[in-house]
Specification:
The chain is α/β, with parallel strands linked by helices. It has helices at 57-68, 80-90, 99-119, 123-126, 147-159, 171-174, 177-191, 207-217, 234-243, 256-265, 276-279, 281-294, 305-314, 328-334, 360-363, and strands spanning 6-23, 28-41, 46-53, 133-139, 164-168, 196-200, 222-226, 248-250, 271-272, 298-299, 321-324, 335-336, 345-347, 357-358. The protein has 15 helices and 14 strands. Residues 147-247 form the Mandelate racemase/muconate lactonizing enzyme C-terminal domain.
Amino acid sequence: MIRHVIREVRADLIASPVQTGFQDATRKVETVGMCVIRVNTDQGLTGIGVTYHEVGGEAIKEMIERYYGPKLIGRDPFETEEIWEELFHYARGVGRKGLSFCALSAVDIALWDLKGKIMDLPLYRLLGGNKKKVPVYASGGWTSYDDDALVAEALEMVRRGYKMIKLKVGVEGGRNIRRDTQRCRKVREAIGPDIGFMVDANNAFHSGDAVRLANEIREYDILFFEEPVFADDIPGLRRFRQGTDIPLGTGEHEYTRYGARDLILGEAVDYLQMDVTRCGGITEMLKVIALSQAWNLAFAPHAMEHIHMHLVSAAANGAFLERLFLFEDITAMVFKDAPVPEEGILTIPDKPGLGLELNSEFLR
């Protein structure tokens, strides 16, 4: 095998304003974007890494180009553990979570993409998986929608072949539980009994109100209830879990194996939803998955399905992927021919590494 040495690191920032004013229970979404990193070797291979942003994308790009990127020059892409530890400790005083960790995640993903390309193996195979087809659910249904628009999007998801969907709860900032219950009833009546139905509160409630809502909508066969309370409120998550038999999904706002450990030991999760483009990249996510398996929990990562498809394929407890309708347009612009789900199934390309090709013309 020819040895590769990293010669160049580049980052591109893509941001698109959201024109229609999407709103969840706790915030208005004004921008969607990605920070795309390219790590080039002396042998002519390029590894792709990606994270996403709604605010702070410029800081992510700066962190990669000014601080992390120079420390990769001259290194072997296979040094993922050593590089991860070095970059983690380099920024630990200012960045054990948040934007700097998004930057670290993108760097690590690019190195794993390079490893797959050097070995001429799709990443899911390199990670020990062999499932080419992975279930995926559709995600949207903003609280800013009126009831007709909410039901219409749910029906559109079903029309496009999805067997599972996820919609928002927490209308009026979580202050109108009766309306949330009515909206969930209308959706279930529209989609019928055979479609998996999940809800996401985006940190809207106190635990008591979240339990009340969960128990009012349980008759609509809710697959899981996501982030019912503030993501850092582990005692509140535990109280929610003790107060209802609807499974609890959380973790998209957690970072590192230590965040996963705290959720698990706090008895505050059923579906672990940590995000590889935030939590520390593939190097760290493999440790997170191992923890979830040790406690026999489902691994159901948040968004970014084209990166997570390899991890869900390789993880014995991988449940399914999430496809955010909000990100469909920008994903189609950034990547050439990224796979699109058919009948609720995403088929992983048999190309080396991530199996993704950047649209260089768009990036320019």
